[in-house]
Amino acid sequence: MIIARSPLRITLGGGGTDLPSYYRENEGFLVSAAIDKYVYVTVMRPFTEGIYLKYSQLEHVEQISDVKHPIIRESLQMMGFKTPQVEITTLADIPSGTGLGSSGSFTTALLKALYTHRKRHLHQEELAELACHVEIDRLGEPIGKQDQYIAAVGGVTCFTFHKNDSVTAKPLGPSMSTMFDLEDNLLLFFTGFSRNAGGILKDQQIKSQQNDVDMLKNLHYVKDLGYRSRDALESGSTVLFGELMHEHWEHKKRRSGGMSNAKIDEWYDLGMKNGAVGGKLVGAGGGGFLMFMAHDRNKLRHAMANAGLEEVRFRFDFEGTKVVLSS
After folding, report:
1. E strand residue ranges, the chain
2. Tens digit of pLDDT for each residue in 93-129?
3. Which of 152, 158, 270, 295 is deepest in the core (most CB within 10 A)?
4. Is the pLDDT score of 277 beyond 60?
């Protein structure tokens, strides 16, 4: 049995510039952080022939082409399983559709487990690129490369997405006190709304490909905010970083009509009046988690709890996708 785990993530600046529709023309940049909330994938060889899948649904099929789960199907086909006799189970600390990059985390964990099962080693960047190949190239999802790369690499990392599709990963360089400040005062609250990021990102993809002036101007600005967020954190200015988060959110909302809703705006305003320096919705938008940078975290927690929002506490993950059991 092989058990692999892959961290979920939060975006700290520059989100949205990792889509091929943007970076192939303009180069993208963002800062992302892996957190200690995970997707787990187990792979084992059952006694009987066939493909056994256990996720939110159960599948038992004989041929790879009959697998309904698209990521599992494409991964098995890509790896060339000739006589499938495999059982795959997946579990997650937090459900999908909540803006924490669960799809990319699942794909990296699945590939890590499958390659380990076949006794083949993958480097972090190689794993990330294979996961991108499955989701973007083979399945045609209108997503970016951030989730796969931060899941594979882990840490608090700056990514540059080059025009030739290559990616450069560089660890953020803040002081330890700044890292502790971030872990103590970055707070995540679940809105109760889950969504599929594809619709919102598809709109961004189409407008970017059509050279929509407003969309490109917005993404240029957000990329610059990514650089400014990096500089603020590396200089220890967490309050400035929080203010940049607010600026980012204001620009992010203009990208799509589905980015927010009246209830999310109400909760965001409540947070800003009760201890938050700045915040934003994590992920593509439309639901998931509100993330705030707090100057008074107790006041903010109290206000959000009274509004009925559940907090998910976290620490950063510095290991990335890894095998936690091989027997």
Report:
1. 2-13, 28-44, 50-54, 58-61, 85-92, 156-161, 167-171, 186-190, 276-281, 289-294, 310-312, 322-326
2. 998 888 899 999 999 999 999 999 999 999 999 999 9
3. 152
4. yes
Report d(CA 128, CA 168) in Å as an integer.
12
User: What is the per-residue DSSP string for 230-293?
Assistant: HHHHHTT-HHHHHHHHHHHHHHHHTT-TTS--HHHHHHHHHHHTTTEEEEEE-SSSSSSEEEEE
CA angle 115, 117, 123 (to 5 degrees): 30
Question: How far, in Å, CA of 102 to CA of 97, rounded?
Answer: 7
Give the C-alpha separation, 101 to 148, whole Å.
8
Residues facing 19 on adjacent strands: none
| DSSP code for 111 | H
Distance in angstroms (rounded) separating the CA atoms of residues 202 and 253: 15
Which structure tokens are listed for 31? Answer: 């800062």
Task: Please state, in angstroms and rounded to a whole number, the distance separating the CA atoms of residues 211 and 231.
Answer: 29
| Mean pLDDT value of segment 172-199 | 87
**Between these two residues, 192 and 283, which has the higher pLDDT value?**
192
